[in-house]
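User: My advisor asked me to double-check a structure prediction for Bifunctional UDP-N-acetylglucosamine 2-epimerase/N-acetylmannosamine kinase before group meeting. I don't want to rely on an old file, so could you generate it fresh from this sequence?
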Amino acid sequence: MLFQLLRHQLYFKNLSKQKQKEVMEKNGNNHKLRVCVATCNRADYSKLAPIMFGIKAEPQFFELDVVVLGSHLIDDYGNTYRMIEQDDFDIHTRLHTIVRGEDEAAMVESVGLALVKLPDVLNRLKPDIMIVHGDRFDALALATSAALMNIRILHIEGGEVSGTIDDSIRHAITKLAHYHVCCTRSAEQHLIAMCEDHDRILLAGCPSYDKLLSARNKDYMSIIRMWLGEDVKTRDYIVALQHPVTTDIKHSIKMFELTLDALISFKKRTLVLFPNVDAGSKEMVRVMRKKGIEHHPNFRAVKHVPFDQFIQLVAHAGCMIGNSSCGVREVGAFGTPVINLGTRQTGRETGENVLHVRDADTQDKILHALHLQFGKQYPCSKIYGDGNAVPRILKFLKSIDLKEPLQKKFCFPPVKDSISQDIDHILETQSALAVDLGGTNLRVAIVSMKGEIVKKYTQLNPKTYEDRLELILKMCIEAASEAVNVNCRILGVGISTGGRVNPREGIVLHSTKLIQEWSSVDLRTPISDALHLPVWVDNDGNCAALAERKFGHGKGIENFVTLITGTGIGGGIVHQHELIHGSSFCAAELGHIVVSLDGPECLCGSQGCIEAYASGIALQREAKKLHDEDLLLVEGMSMKKEEVVSAAHLIQAAKLGNTKADSILRTAGTALGLGVVNILHTMNPSLVILSGVLASHYVNAVKDVINQQALSSVKTVDVVVSNLADPALLGAASLVLDYTTRRIY
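Assistant: Sure, here is a fresh prediction for Bifunctional UDP-N-acetylglucosamine 2-epimerase/N-acetylmannosamine kinase from the sequence you gave:
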């Protein structure tokens, strides 16, 4: 038994080493990711520390450099760099970057001083990536320096909304950052709306929640007594933390005065933390001293409380008051009542434990809020995290490929066409060259913005790669020349082709068996070089879905699925108005949904796929079987001797009363219907569009199967037949017409 256990341990140890080796080899020469974490103050360290512990715990993947600057190094703010040392982190660099004065000019000068000092540090450390937190002016200096020195930036807590200048700084850092870790779904959507690449956004939750949700210190009473006195009980004291609002310093100082007056009148033991280093903090400290807070028997005024102890203090407080983000974010994890004052956190998501006092002209409004909130206990809120942020962030860091281009890209949304005052431009029709690569024919068309096929060219699809590419170029050049004569301005080329396609690179990865010599083919480069036009390439099923979205039944529909029923079975999925490609560009291979484990063999090598039952090839196969047994032709049908048996003959026979042909069609319709039911249960679209030559023959059978087999919650789905005459060409045109102004879709 012991031997077996040791053997298992050795196996998993070797497996882990192999995995580590694969990750490091991805970045070349067993390179560890060198991560620089820069912390500016006590607040950002509480968010960065859990990540730093995680990085430190995996030395086989990471090298950690810690840079300390900002208010960490100022005595008046508690010399909080000591808590970093107490956490056993080696501080590689200390930068004194704060210019004292605590006014607007001092903040600007502090940013400038940091920008002067940081280049030397970054040149010396040469990190692969810098982690920057939040929205402080110090963090802006860090992000600016790293961006200009071509160092990748991971920004924590981007996309959030609050008041004051912090919003502008946070969003400025977002635009400089290459990767983003956000805490809430709303923040993620804000980042996407700001044109950040969705692939580089991680919804992880707040790192501090990893510690908050596991913080259950049995000896919390000793912490409370240490900071507030021996006679204090749980839920019978207040924690106050208020910072200046840099865009309205006078008003924030006035509100701080009213807050202290209300707390004095409320007569409960209160722990008051000194404000941060922002402009106006000096005046706030003067207000505290003027009112004698540091010597008042009901108050304890402190510059800094270690985060672990601060957690216990707010977790067991009767109330927290002020305008710190901690109040609207972290404190919700404990259900502690919070009174949020002023505009500093306007726009942040909050739990029901937060009561907002947006404006106060007297202390009475704040005092009333204290009476309403003090001593309550609210449900714990997990808006900002579930306690698993750090593992997600570490996994995200490991996935970063240092070989990727450093230059970040923005995903701009579609914009309205600009109105040109050039008469020739106004008179021309903006159009696309659409290319459809089918198993039999190669087609090129000029398609207008309204979906009109202005001119179409058709040739037999050559069998070899060289001949095919030569013919595509020849037909496109001819169509582009003709476009001038028909008054069309060509915006680009869209190509619809069978097989698996990487649309980002314009490469056909693997083709269907219907198109020979068509794998690992770069279509974008040669066509773009020859025509001097942008080129988009996608799978024919995806193009059909795009055609429906722009010109057909899918217009304005948020979630729908298109199924092509032709020679094969394909399709496309539109979710939240966007086409789904999948992680390996294999999404929406709907023809290969298996509906029977022992069904007929499919061209993909599997058995029982929808395509093996309902495609044109499958129907042709069954028609040949009937014909070979003299069971196909019925009265009213005739075939020439040299005529090839096709699916059309099977359909005709079924219409004329051939029961065997009718049975085959019903089986095919049932198989397609079962596939649609699977799609409904997986994607839950509001619309299913059947496209292609066989769609009208299957639509009723599909509806019947949905009524019999689907869950009641999806039976109301609309199933319609496409009204588009040529979805492949229209979809290829949509690639151009929809995305001429976008970089990625």
